[in-house]
Amino acid sequence: MRRRLCGLGLGGSVIGWRLTKQNILEVLEPKKEQNLCSFRKFSAFSILFAALSFSVPKQAGTMDSPNIAIVYGGSQGTMRNSTLICAPIMAESVDKMVIEIGKAKAFGADLVEIRLDSLKAFDPHQDLQTLIKGSTLPTLFTYRPTWEGGQYDGDEKTRQDALRLAMEFGADYIDVELQVAREFNDSIDGKKPEKFKVVVSSHNYQTTPSVEDLGNLVAQIQAAGADIVKFATTAVDITDVARVFQIAVHSQVPIIALVMGERGLISRILCAKFGGYLTFGTLESGIVSAPGQPTINDLLHLYKFRQIGPDTKVFGVIGKPVGHSKSPILYNEAFKSVGFNGVYLHLLVDDIANFLQTYSSADFAGFSVTIPHKEAALKCCDEVDPVAKSIGAVNCIIRRQSDGKLLGFNTDYVGAISAIEDGLQGSLNTSSVTGSPLAGKLFIVIGAGGAGKALAYGAKEKGARVVIANRTYDRARELADTIGGDALSLADLDKFHPEDGMILANTTSIGMHPKVDDTPISKSSPHKFMEDVGRFGTWFSPGQHALKSYSLVFDAVYTPKITRLLREAEESGAIIVTGIEMFVGQAYDQFEKFTGLPAPKEQFRKVMADYS
């Protein structure tokens, strides 16, 4: 097998290459005179992830895994990679475990991890035979002790005896912890069935070590007699995962290299791209054997896991929070429908500059940007579209494949303003109106962040009179001065209605799941006791019907589809426009920028209708 290190300009045959500390240093530190300090500094940026553009990672299916055709991308359902999906089985009784194994097969798993430490009662001789004979999938037996994050707190000899018995009864794999692996492997020397494999594992529940330390760890696991190397670390930041990718893509032995936690989710999906032996997929959301595990359903149907391969381009939505986003549903379905070899992920990012600097290979080809990173994203781009520059925020980043430069765009205002105009035109019931129905309207924008800037810019371009309402008045004033509008404190919004027929647009996350009872302006004002209209001057009046003055209300939040703000606005007689309309509208443009292909618009709307 031949690989190329594109970013380093290195290449050559690495057949039979095994990962050791020395190998890592030879790849990452080609100049022998380079000291450790410079190695750490340099590898953290350009060198560390040059290897992520390897053209052909080793495939997991070389170690007696199912005979799978390794073909990637496209829309054909038969195409799949060789990275296995393993379902953790954690029922409290053997009978329930057998039932769950059947479910795992029906859901699409390739094997099951039977967690013996979850059983309330366990008779090794009887229960192991029942589980092995009753399993319709290959079995991986794990009996995790408390000192390695499991539930077993009994005698160590008893635990290892049970694992040896599982091997004798016909288990396909067993998992043994690095701390006791040498002892265990010595005890089964010469007794292993031909196709039986020992997974030697190590778990770090606090952090993800450096590349050098991970390399040392892998070398220790190999030296302990592992047939398959497994390590799991914890992501403090999403950039931690890149160090694990670096190790996985170099390994020429079967390796399970995963990162726990929400920030580590990408390791559980992109392991199929970087040559991981398996990933874990659960039967149900929240029922996990380690933090951050996706469901089998999400792996197969949301992320199209079987179609991910070495040449798959990676896209994603950058945000914090980000788990609520429906973008992966939309884009992954669209990629599949047009035969585009890409995968779109949730990316929980704390520092967007650090993220973009870390994942700098051409494989990480484009990103949608959401709250709170849209303004910071603009500063990270090498080139910015004039409209995005005028708005002062970016919601779409493309990595130009010819030179790796980051190009910034803003597609928010197009989708939102078009949806609002459509809503108003529908209410006017006429197509003869020239110009925008927003012209001359008083347009209230809640929020002065990236989306707020986009809508304020778009409304102003359409001839609206724009007022910015924000929790921090100074930020509202700053944006208002930039676009030539007025400013208002959000606290005063519920008693601000100088005229009828106004437009209200919420661009903040107020009302987003799970805080669905929150709203930036309620139907009934908390100031309803103030009955003297004159106290507020010509711009203010009593707030008993705070939403009555709006002819149309738009909410950028789309989880839930109908927020409290929209529900109460509709009850007050206003036209409502959901965040779905903005989401789909801006997604058309982003899809075309990501792929260079026309957006499948009808499918976009169908997907969102199915999931909203």
UniProtKB/TrEMBL annotation:
Pfam family name, one: SDH_C
Molecular function (Gene Ontology), one example: shikimate 3-dehydrogenase (NADP+) activity
Domain Shikimate dehydrogenase substrate binding N-terminal stretches: 317-397
Annotated InterPro entries: Aldolase_TIM, Aminoacid_DH-like_N_sf, DHquinase_I, NAD(P)-bd_dom_sf, SDH_C, Shikimate_DH-bd_N, Shikimate_DH_fam, Shikm_DH/Glu-tRNA_Rdtase
SDH C-terminal domain mapped to chain residues: 579-608
Signal peptide boundaries: none
Native species: Parasponia andersonii (Sponia andersonii)
Quinate/shikimate 5-dehydrogenase/glutamyl-tRNA reductase domain mapped to chain residues: 438-508
HAMAP family per record: AroD (MF_00214), Shikimate_DH_AroE (MF_00222)
Gene Ontology biological process terms in this record: chorismate biosynthetic process; shikimate metabolic process
Protein name: 3-dehydroquinate dehydratase type I
